[in-house]
């Protein structure tokens, strides 16, 4: 099978490419150039897809002994991920750019180009497992290493995309991957894992948004209001700098009557109002979501679990859907859930699908009491 190995420059994708070769596939490595101005990209462990990463990917391909290319996907990345990120924050929502990158870039634009060039599949270093179900469909399951499991950010993949995907690391733990990389002579064996948002140069998301949004900024400040009393507690410099559940950065200056910290409960981008309150007011018992994407057959009802953040907890839930819209009743209450986040639905370890949260229904005070 002809396989295109997406090589980020990290240890995971390098070992995934090596394993694809070892499995007998005809493998070609490709690194995705995602920045319109590569010189501005950071180096080190923050983010991914830097110039440093491109060089590391090339060296790994040389060691493995496979052809290597760099594909310029900067326009697709800017439109599908960066612009979406800014639009979502401007609307008072909290997006996950890694999930959107998988949907729009790695398993859409890249896979489409790979198939057009005659490749049969794209291999990546994601930690997830693929199996063929009794109905003949390809199922995606959680990785063996639950601490590294990345099925949440892959929950946007359709059956057609899964049928042309390979995840060689799904049955392996991260320490084993590093040991294998060292044994294979890959210099990235001890390279730190990437983290943060790759296109935010210094990790300051609020500062980056303030600079980039410009006229699209929904407001240049507003009131911070106590959700229970309506009292104005202070002001802020822009709702895009906050997300639901956030505690730091409010700078209210005086504690709540009970002495406990306040958290962002609601964001109103048009009026510029932030509503804040105690932690227990963040509890959510139900979720509505749209833009559903299904990994296989569309279900009517799932009694399983949902995950609401990357590396977040699982919550027991009953999920109903008409195919496009999703309603989730949480049997285990969640906390601090924001519109724009993804809800990924599981039946045991199998990923059923995902949707984008539009409304998080908070537990009423009388129920909390």
UniProtKB/TrEMBL annotation:
<keyword id="KW-0820">tRNA-binding</keyword>
<feature type="binding site">
    <location>
        <position position="125"/>
    </location>
    <ligand>
        <name>ATP</name>
    </ligand>
</feature>
<dbReference type="Pfam" id="PF03054">
    <property type="entry name" value="tRNA_Me_trans"/>
</dbReference>
<keyword id="KW-0694">RNA-binding</keyword>
<dbReference type="GO" id="GO:0000049">
    <property type="term" value="F:tRNA binding"/>
</dbReference>
<dbReference type="Pfam" id="PF20259">
    <property type="entry name" value="tRNA_Me_trans_M"/>
</dbReference>
<keyword id="KW-0547">Nucleotide-binding</keyword>
<comment type="similarity">
    <text>Belongs to the MnmA/TRMU family.</text>
</comment>
<keyword id="KW-1015">Disulfide bond</keyword>
<feature type="site" description="Interaction with tRNA">
    <location>
        <position position="341"/>
    </location>
</feature>
<dbReference type="InterPro" id="IPR046884">
    <property type="entry name" value="MnmA-like_central"/>
</dbReference>
<dbReference type="InterPro" id="IPR014729">
    <property type="entry name" value="Rossmann-like_a/b/a_fold"/>
</dbReference>
<dbReference type="InterPro" id="IPR023382">
    <property type="entry name" value="MnmA-like_central_sf"/>
</dbReference>
<protein>
    <recommendedName>
        <fullName>tRNA-specific 2-thiouridylase MnmA</fullName>
        <ecNumber>2.8.1.13</ecNumber>
    </recommendedName>
</protein>
<keyword id="KW-0808">Transferase</keyword>
<dbReference type="InterPro" id="IPR004506">
    <property type="entry name" value="MnmA-like"/>
</dbReference>
<dbReference type="GO" id="GO:0005737">
    <property type="term" value="C:cytoplasm"/>
</dbReference>
<dbReference type="GO" id="GO:0005524">
    <property type="term" value="F:ATP binding"/>
</dbReference>
<dbReference type="InterPro" id="IPR046885">
    <property type="entry name" value="MnmA-like_C"/>
</dbReference>
<feature type="region of interest" description="Interaction with tRNA">
    <location>
        <begin position="148"/>
        <end position="150"/>
    </location>
</feature>
<comment type="function">
    <text>Catalyzes the 2-thiolation of uridine at the wobble position (U34) of tRNA, leading to the formation of s(2)U34.</text>
</comment>
<feature type="binding site">
    <location>
        <begin position="6"/>
        <end position="13"/>
    </location>
    <ligand>
        <name>ATP</name>
    </ligand>
</feature>
<feature type="site" description="Interaction with tRNA">
    <location>
        <position position="126"/>
    </location>
</feature>
<feature type="binding site">
    <location>
        <position position="32"/>
    </location>
    <ligand>
        <name>ATP</name>
    </ligand>
</feature>
<feature type="active site" description="Nucleophile">
    <location>
        <position position="101"/>
    </location>
</feature>
<feature type="domain" description="tRNA-specific 2-thiouridylase MnmA-like C-terminal">
    <location>
        <begin position="285"/>
        <end position="357"/>
    </location>
</feature>
<feature type="disulfide bond" description="Alternate">
    <location>
        <begin position="101"/>
        <end position="198"/>
    </location>
</feature>
<keyword id="KW-0963">Cytoplasm</keyword>
<dbReference type="GO" id="GO:0103016">
    <property type="term" value="F:tRNA-uridine 2-sulfurtransferase activity"/>
</dbReference>
<feature type="domain" description="tRNA-specific 2-thiouridylase MnmA-like central">
    <location>
        <begin position="213"/>
        <end position="277"/>
    </location>
</feature>
<feature type="active site" description="Cysteine persulfide intermediate">
    <location>
        <position position="198"/>
    </location>
</feature>
<keyword id="KW-0819">tRNA processing</keyword>
<keyword id="KW-0067">ATP-binding</keyword>
<dbReference type="Pfam" id="PF20258">
    <property type="entry name" value="tRNA_Me_trans_C"/>
</dbReference>
<dbReference type="GO" id="GO:0002143">
    <property type="term" value="P:tRNA wobble position uridine thiolation"/>
</dbReference>
């Amino acid at each position: 099978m002809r396989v295109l190995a997406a090589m980020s420059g990290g240890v995971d994708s390098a070992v995934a490419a090596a394993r694809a070769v070892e499995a007998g596939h005809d493998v070609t490595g490709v690194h995705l150039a995602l920045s319109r101005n590569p010189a501005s990209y950071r180096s080190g462990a923050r983010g991914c897809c830097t110039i440093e990463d491109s060089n590391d990917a090339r060296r790994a391909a040389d060691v493995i002994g496979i052809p290597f290319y760099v594909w310029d996907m900067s326009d697709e990345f800017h439109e599908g991920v960066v612009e979406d990120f800014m639009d979502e924050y401007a609307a008072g929502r909290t997006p996950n750019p890694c999930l959107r990158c998988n949907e729009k870039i790695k398993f859409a634009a890249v896979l489409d180009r790979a198939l057009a060039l005659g490749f049969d599949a794209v291999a990546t270093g994601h930690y997830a497992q693929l199996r063929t179900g009794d109905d003949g469909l390809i199922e995606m399951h959680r990785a063996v290493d639950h601490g590294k499991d990345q099925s949440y950010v892959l929950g946007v993949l359709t059956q057609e995309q899964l049928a042309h995907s390979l995840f060689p690391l799904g049955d392996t733990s991260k320490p084993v991957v590093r040991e294998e990389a060292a044994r294979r002579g890959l210099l990235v064996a001890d390279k730190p894992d990437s983290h943060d948002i790759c296109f935010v140069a210094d990790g300051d998301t609020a500062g980056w948004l303030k600079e980039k949004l410009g006229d699209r900024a929904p407001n240049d400040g507003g009131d911070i209001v106590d959700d229970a009393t309506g009292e104005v507690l202070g002001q802020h410099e822009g709702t895009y700098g906050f997300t639901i559940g956030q505690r730091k950065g409010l700078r209210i200056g005086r504690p709540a009557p009970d002495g406990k910290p306040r958290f962002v409960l609601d964001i109103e981008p048009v009026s510029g109002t932030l509503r804040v309150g105690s932690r227990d007011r963040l509890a959510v018992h139900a979720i509505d979501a749209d833009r559903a994407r299904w990994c296989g057959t569309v279900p009517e009802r799932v009694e399983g679990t949902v995950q609401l953040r990357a590396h977040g907890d699982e919550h027991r839930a009953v999920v109903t859907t008409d195919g496009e819209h999703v309603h989730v009743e949480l049997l285990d209450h969640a906390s601090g859930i924001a519109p724009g986040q993804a809800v990924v639905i599981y039946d045991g370890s199998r990923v059923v699908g995902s949707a984008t949260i539009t409304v998080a229904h908070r537990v009423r005070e009388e129920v909390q009491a």
